[in-house]
Automatic annotation (TrEMBL):
Region Disordered, annotated ranges: 76-119, 235-255
A Pfam family: Ribosomal_L27A
GO biological process: translation
Superkingdom of origin organism: Eukaryota
Ranges for domain Large ribosomal subunit protein uL15/eL18: 134-210
Protein's organism: Erythroxylum novogranatense
Family annotation (InterPro entries): Ribosomal_uL15, Ribosomal_uL15/eL18, Ribosomal_uL15/eL18_sf, Ribosomal_uL15_bac-type
Biased composition (Basic residues): 90-99
Protein name: Large ribosomal subunit protein uL15/eL18 domain-containing protein
Coiled coil regions, renumbered to chain: none
An example Gene Ontology molecular-function term: structural constituent of ribosome
UniProt entry keywords in alphabetical sequence: Ribonucleoprotein, Ribosomal protein
One GO location term (cellular component): mitochondrial large ribosomal subunit
Length: 278
């Protein structure tokens, strides 16, 4: 409505000024005359001298800043601002009652057993479950052949992540799988969180070793991103011991910072034998 009104106003004003009878007024105000405009663009105007109106075809009478959407501008309802507003006094809450006096707890159904308690329980979510990112021996052998991983050094979870053998989202560690075990034909040494029986047998058959190490959430971050602690001005945390339920599933505590040489198993076996009482 506003745009149409502005358009009619602009059309009427332009028609009055372009009327040939108002030559003296346009000359006085400095507005170009019809003859001057026609000399500039003779094909750009359509004149109807009998009706006293001169229309424009080459020049638009509307501007972009006058365009408006036909969207209703509904204002927010103001409550409690007098009886005349329609939402005064009780502000649309009615008279008395629990809903008129204040808010209630989410899910409260007036004292009866709520829906969430009437419905039976289904399923179970273990809060102590661990999620490991899998990686196969075939993929590790492929990266070794490409020169991205050095088989003479210890292959840790940091090595696998930096080279792209696994994704960046390492939740609770890495699980070594036996996919592509036939491609391992040279000894390699790895430290991962978990390992399958087939993968362990394939690595040991080639003369290598696999060690299951334990890292908690903070220790895993210190292993993968040690530069984060240096940036924050913090020291690397001490390696965490595994909880009693996980002691049978790991071989040793994870070392920090990231180790570069493997620990032979027979050294620990000798130390355990020495520490045992005779």
């Amino acid at each position: 409505m506003i745009c149409r009104r502005r358009l009619l106003t602009s059309l009427s004003s332009s028609a009055s000024f372009l009327n040939p009878q108002n030559e003296k007024m346009r000359a006085f105000t400095g507005i170009p005359t019809f003859q001057s405009l026609q000399s500039r663009n003779p094909n750009g105007f359509s004149a109807n001298v009998e009706s006293g109106y001169v229309g424009l075809r080459a020049y638009s009478l509307l501007s972009l800043n006058d365009l408006r959407d036909k969207v209703p501008r509904k204002l927010k309802t103001r409550k409690g601002r007098g009886i005349g507003s329609g939402k005064g006094k009780t502000a649309g809450r009615g008279h008395k009652g629990q809903k008129a006096r204040g808010t209630m707890k989410y899910g409260f159904e007036g004292g009866q057993t709520p829906m969430r308690r009437r419905m039976p329980k289904r399923g179970f979510k273990n809060p102590f479950s661990l999620t490991f990112q899998p990686v196969g021996l075939g993929k590790i052998a492929k990266f070794i052949n490409q020169g991205k991983i050095d088989s003479h050094e210890l292959i840790t979870m940091k090595t696998l992540r930096d080279t792209g053998a696994i994704g960046k989202q390492i939740k609770d560690g890495v699980r070594l799988m036996g996919r592509g075990a036939e491609k391992i034909k040279w000894p390699i040494h790895l430290e991962v969180s978990r390992v399958t029986v087939r993968a362990k047998e394939a690595v040991e058959a080639a003369g290598g070793t696999v060690r299951r190490v334990h890292y908690n959430e903070l220790g895993l971050r210190a292993l993968i991103k040690p530069e984060w602690f240096e940036k924050k001005g913090r020291l690397l945390p001490k390696p965490a011991r595994p909880p009693p339920k996980l002691r049978d599933k790991v071989d040793s505590i994870g070392r920090l910072p990231a180790p570069t040489k493997p620990i032979p198993f027979y050294v620990e076996q000798k130390e355990d034998a020495i520490s045992l009482p005779s």
